[in-house]
């Protein structure tokens, strides 16, 4: 006894087929019988219906699988966007923490300065309330004033000495410049005198040369005159 139990076909659940193993297969018959059962008209319709149901299920499964892939891709894109936003938020958080740390350090420094100022004021108030400490403070201020006055006198003395030395240096420089100027004037005058002397000497030599040339010409003329007369 063979009972068809397809997974998707409800019609084939009650379809029972009984195969008789003693029935021989008639190869010449138009309808092939297997165990006395017409497989084409009995089994094939149920299997065809099961095949169609399985094909529909497979198509639906493929569509659902593709839809799942699309949703997965969208989810991955959203996850990437969320990751980028998370990274931006982490960077902003790091900058905020750095800024907060810097402001905290600055505030701590300000608090330390204010604390030292308050401590100084408290010490001054305590000194004012204590006569002995006040006298010591006044004595310290007097010593500081005396030291400052001594430094001022020394600096003024040094300034006067430097001023005197500078004025002496300026006077020496002026004297040296004046002497150099006089020396230059004398050299220029001597040079002018030398040029004038050389100029006069040149004029004298030039006049002497001119006179010599005239005498030579006159002598040549006298020498040539008898010859011209004889001719």
Automatic annotation (TrEMBL):
Start-end of Polar residues biased regions: 222-231
**Coiled-coil regions listed in the entry:** 58-106
- Which controlled-vocabulary keywords does the entry list? Coiled coil
| Chain intervals for the UniProt region annotation (Disordered) | 206-231
Q: List, alphabetically, the InterPro entries matched.
A: Kinetochore_Ndc80
Biological process annotations from GO: attachment of mitotic spindle microtubules to kinetochore
Can you tell which superkingdom this protein's organism belongs to? Eukaryota
A GO CC annotation recorded here is:
Ndc80 complex
- What is the protein named? Uncharacterized protein
């Amino acid at each position: 006894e063979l009972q068809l139990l397809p997974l998707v076909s409800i019609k084939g659940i009650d379809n029972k087929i009984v195969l008789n193993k003693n029935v021989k297969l008639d190869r010449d018959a138009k309808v092939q019988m297997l165990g006395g059962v017409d497989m084409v008209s009995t089994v094939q319709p149920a299997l065809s219906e099961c095949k169609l149901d399985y094909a529909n299920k497979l198509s639906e499964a493929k569509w659902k699988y593709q839809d799942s892939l699309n949703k997965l891709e969208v989810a991955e894109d959203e996850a990437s966007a969320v990751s980028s936003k998370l990274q931006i938020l982490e960077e902003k958080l790091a900058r905020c923490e750095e800024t907060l740390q810097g402001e905290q350090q600055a505030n701590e420094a300000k608090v330390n300065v204010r604390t030292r100022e308050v401590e100084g004021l408290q010490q001054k108030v305590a000194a004012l309330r204590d006569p002995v400490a006040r006298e010591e403070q006044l004595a310290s201020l007097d010593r500081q004033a005396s030291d400052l006055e001594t430094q001022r006198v020394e600096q003024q003395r040094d300034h006067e000495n430097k001023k005197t030395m500078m004025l002496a240096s300026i006077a020496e420089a002026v004297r040296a410049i004046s002497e150099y100027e006089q020396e230059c004037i004398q050299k220029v005058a001597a040079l002018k005198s030398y040029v004038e002397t050389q100029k006069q000497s040149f004029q004298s030599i030039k006049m002497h040369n001119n006179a010599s040339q005239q005498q030579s010409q006159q002598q040549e003329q006298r020498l040539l005159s008898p010859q011209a007369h004889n001719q």
